[in-house]
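Reopening closed ticket. The problem is back. First fold of the pair:
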Amino acid sequence: MKVSTRGRYALRMLLDLAEHKSEGRITLNDIAQRQGISRKYLEQIILLLNKSGMLRTTRGYQGGYALAKEPDQYTVGQILRVTEGKLCPVACMKDEPNQCERNRFCKTLPVWQGLGNVMNAYLDGITLQTILDDNKTRDADEYTI
């Protein structure tokens, strides 16, 4: 599995909203500037995130975006599934049930299923809050006088 730019940028955008949630609604321009991502690209990602219910949107003066839930309620796996679709290591596992003509006798399918299970469990075990907390710890460790 290779995570696309869309998936990486969606994660960065939601992390930005989580990090600045105390500021209320955040404009797309602010996110774009802080993250070094074009506003136009973020607009495309916003459509996916809005449709999935991950964001609260306010239009007009003092409008902007905010997370619909607390940062500990969003996993990296959820975010990537919204932007990337099903997370699986090989193409033949995308469909349920498996449509591969070899699936009944494929000797390697259990390997890919196991990898998919580990990968999904790992990504579902990391929340936006986990990432923020890990970065606070790392930043504190780098503090010098």
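Second fold of the pair, where the issue appears:
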Amino acid sequence: MADICNLCPRQCNIDRSATLGYCKSSDKVRIARVGLHEWEEPCISYGKGSGTIFFSGCNLRCVYCQNNEISSHLHGTEISVDTLADEMLKLQDMGAVNINLVTPTHYADKIVSALDKAKDKLHIPTVYNCGGYESIDALKMLDGYIDIYLPDLKYYSSEISGKYSGCSDYFDVAVKAISEMARQTGKPVFDDYGHMKSGTMVRHLVLPSLYKDSIEAFDNLAKTVKPQEIAVSIMCQYFPTHLADKYSEINRKTTTLEYMKVVDFVRTLGFEYGFMQDKSSAKKDYVPVFDYRKGE
């Protein structure tokens, strides 16, 4: 009997070997880039860099996605679970400080299988770098496999999340997911150099015109998840791309004033660790080249 996919809150309930759901992905793992990545938060990409594996497809496909080449247009190469495990070990051999699984939600089951194959040789932390729109059942399947959860918290308003990411239930789902992630990892643990070894770090990209929604999101997150139980990263790297030109309110960069209003508010909530991004990050130079097996 074919596997029916309900890995994410979309609950497509389909056989991905025969048809495609919201994420546009088949039952075969598709990746677009494997390599060392120096542009994550310093506590994640310290040393030689984070060992990133970018997966193609996405269960959100936000209208402003900076990685739309792979999230919406599915650029990438199909690989086996064995190859995925091998790529993790190659990254470790290259000096990666962790294995950073980017947009992994729709391949959670395959990732578990790959980690099972690599576990006897893999000795660096695993990072689950996701959009925050996660199924509790899938997260429980990952329990014990993931050292660091790196979820987004994108929105508070159901109207806004429906408009830009096609899911009006985003905040409620994401907060429950973040709570489960924090339960699994415990409080963030850093070494003497500030390098993250385990824990949950919640990311938020401040969008132009929407700083009040950002404030609402963190205000309500702090009511559900104790600020001392997670770390936060507030990002200002937004620039209009993909379909953003169809929405005048987000068809520009975020201003310093908008960004700092969010930063200043989040600081009042008692989060023990925070990373605030330099405004110079809001440019296309920080989007990686998706060149896995280019030319083969």
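Update: turned out to be a display glitch only; the data is intact. Residues 115 and 163 are 36 Å apart (CA to CA). The mean pLDDT is 92. Please close again.
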